[in-house]
Write a structure and sequence with these properties.
Elements (H helix, E strand, L loop, with lengths): L36 H29 L1 H25 L7 H32 L8 H27 L7 H29 L3 H14 L3 H18 L4 H28 L3 H43 L5 H8 L1 H12 L3 H25 L5 H22 L11
Helix pairs in contact: 1-2, 1-3, 1-5, 2-5, 2-6, 3-4, 3-5, 4-5, 4-7, 4-8, 5-6, 5-7, 7-8, 9-10, 9-12, 10-11, 11-12, 12-13
Length: 409
Amino acid sequence: MSLDQPPGQPPHQQHPVQASPTPVEPVWSGQVRPSRTGPIVLGIVGIVLAGLALLAVFLYLATLLGTGALLVGLLLALLPLAVVLLSVRWIDRWDPEPRPALIFALLWGAGISIVSALIVDLGVQITIAASAGALAGSDFASAVIQAPIVEEVAKGFGVLVLFWAVRRHFHGPLDGVVYAATIAAGFAFSENIQYFGLAMAEGNAQTLGITFLLRGVFSPFAHVTFTICTGLALGLAARRSATKSGAVAFFLLGLVPAIGLHALWNGATFLLAGDASVLFYYVVVQAPLFIVAILVVVFLRRQEARMTLRRLHEYSQAGWFTAAEVSMLGTDSGRRQALAWGARQPRPKQLAMRLFIADATRLAFVRDQLVRGQSSPALNAREARLLTRLMHHRADVLGQALPGPTPAA
C-alpha cells in the first residue's frame, strides 16, 4: 500500500474474488447481524468460574504450604510462566486470538484443570482407604498412569471447550497450539507453586534451587509439549470443518500422544536412577522432543503467512487490493514497515492501520475456508463485512472519505 499516494478505489459492486465458490457482493444486504450478547455473557461467566477455581487452588495451597511458602512459590512460578506466555505471544503474533479467550485458557489451566486433578486424586485416596487394604496406592501408578491421564484430559478438555466456544477464531493447528500452550502454562504455574512451596517449606535452599532448576529452567515447556498434541488435533478438526460432535474424535486422538509423552516424562524419574541418568534422558529424549515441537510451530506459522499472502493475492486479482498492499498485509517485513509508519501518525490513523492488518488476516482465513469448501451463509456474510470494513480502514489510514453511501458494518 502506498502511504504517500492513495490507491485507486476498488469496485464496490464487484464480487470479492471472481473464483470464489460462493461469490458475495460486499454491500449491506439489510439482514440483521446476529447478536453478540450471548457469547459475551458466556465468556464473562466462563472467566468468572475459572477464576473462582483458581481462587480455590490458592486457598488449598495456602493451607498446604503456609502463607510464606505460598508467596515464595508464587513469585518463583511467575518466572517460567512469563517465559512461556511470551513465547505464546510470539506464536500468536500473526493472527492474534481474542484476549478474553486467552484469559479463559490461562485460568482454565491454572484453576479448573488443577481442581479436576485434585478431585480425582482425592477420590482415588478415599477409594484406597475404604478398601481396607484390598487396594494399595503406588507412587509409580500415580505418577505414570493416573497423573498423565487425568491432567491431559483436564487440560485438553479446555481446548475442546474453546473450540466449541470461539469456533470462528479457531482456524487451524496453530490456533490449537496457542490455546493448548496457554492452558498448559496455567497448569504448570499452579503446579510449580506447589513444588517450589514444598521445597521452601523444607527450609533447604539447595532443594529449592534444584527444584527451580529442574522445573523452571530445564522444563518450563514440558506441559506445553504434552498438551499441544491435543491442540494440534483440534486444529486439524477446525481445518476440516468438523462439527462439535466430530471434534470429539480428534480430541481423543490428540490425547493419545499427549498422555504418552506425559507418562514418558514422569516415568523417567522412576526408571532412571541418579541425577546423571535423568540428565541423560533429558538430553537424549526430552530436548529433541522440544526441538521437534519448535520446528512444528515455526512450520505452522510460516504456513499461515504463506496462506495469507496467497489468499490476499486472489483478492488483488479482483481489484480489492493493490500489489503493494498485498505485500504490506501478507509479509512480516511489510507489516513491520506499516506499523512503524502508523506509530508516527495520529492515534486514529495508527489504530486504523492495525485494524487494516488484523481484518485483512481474518479475511484471508475466511477466504481459505471458502476455497476448502466450507461455504455457509454466515461465512459469506462475514467475508462481505470484512471487505467493507477494510475499505473503511484504508480510507481512515489515508485520511479519505469513501464515496457514496456508507455500507453498514
